[in-house]
Amino acid sequence: MSLQAATPVLAHPPAVSAAGATGLSKVYGQGEARVVALDSVSVEFGRARFTAIMGPSGSGKSTLMHCVAGLDSVSAGSARIGDTELSTLNDRQLTQVRREKVGFVFQAFNLLPTLTALENITLPLAIAGRKPNQPWLDTIVAKVGLSARLGHRPAQLSGGQQQRVAVARALLSQPEIIFADEPTGNLDSRAGSEVLGFLRDSVRELGQTVVMVTHDPVAASYADRVVFLADGRITDELLAPTAEGVLDRMRNFDS
Ligand code: ADP
Ligand code: MG
């Protein structure tokens, strides 16, 4: 049988794909200003898995996330969430897919300052015209340890608490996939490890799918799998990563 021989370059494709890209290229600008941010990237993100996208600054991590999340268009190739090919969608349909299937956590928290923690958590559902499932909301709020802070506004919360609000907001709609771009970039190591722990627990205990962009080997070690990017290409991957193992791979690129 030739099935084994057809195994793709990445040795451990996840059994069920929640999202992915095939031959995805992204070019910004023209002429002198032309930048190839992604060069024919093919990758799958497994369902109920925590995948980290790791690489140096400028390697294309955010661009990959933005293209697969439907926040940016692709120059060539394709990106999909579930079995929805994003390039077939118009802007209105893309907005709908993001709203219904994707949760986001950003480095800068992106909370609305005039809303309470609870209002921030439920805002995306409110925009989509959906009511939160109260037991699920209670579960998530308890999980991220915000029960006593729901009436606080972002300015009354620490950075770690604000990011936990953002994680709860992303988890509430049980999206097909959560994308987190450097979610611990603005946090001290203790608050960062709390947020990473919640993201990991959401995968292990709640079956959530999470893709996290990071340049921090310790953050990447919370994931089930690390995909390495360099100069817009996937160069390597690591399963069950440790921070040491991730650092070793990074050193290999430098040499
Ligand atoms: P990373 O997240 O790994 O730091 P990015 O995906 O942000 O990298 O960027 C990859 C490359 O694409 C970089 O060279 C960056 O300067 C370039 N780039 C990213 N966004 C834009 C943009 N909107 N316009 C022009 N160039 C961009
Ligand atoms: Mg980035």
What layout of secondary structure does this protein have?
Blueprint: E1 17-28, E2 35-46, E3 50-54, H1 61-68, E4 76-81, E5 84-85, H2 91-101, E6 102-106, H3 117-127, H4 134-143, H5 159-172, E7 177-181, H6 189-204, E8 210-214, H7 217-220, E9 225-230, E10 233-239, H8 243-254
Parallel strand pairs: 3-8, 3-9, 6-7, 7-8
Antiparallel strand pairs: 1-2, 1-4, 4-5, 9-10
The structure holds adenosine-5'-diphosphate (ADP) and magnesium ion (MG).
Provide an overview of this structure:
This protein is an alpha/beta fold and 255 residues long. It has a single domain (17-254), classed as Rossmann fold (3-Layer(aba) Sandwich). The protein has 8 helices and 10 strands. The protein has helices at 61-68, 91-101, 117-127, 134-143, 159-172, 189-204, 217-220, 243-254; strands at residues 17-28, 35-46, 50-54, 76-81, 84-85, 102-106, 177-181, 210-214, 225-230, 233-239. The strands form 2 sheets. A 6-stranded mixed sheet has the order 6-7-8-3-9-10, sandwiched between helices. Strand 7 (177-181), helix 6 and strand 8 (210-214) form a beta-alpha-beta unit. The chain binds adenosine-5'-diphosphate and magnesium ion (MG). Adenosine-5'-diphosphate (ADP) is lined by residues 28-29, 35, 37, 55, 57-63.
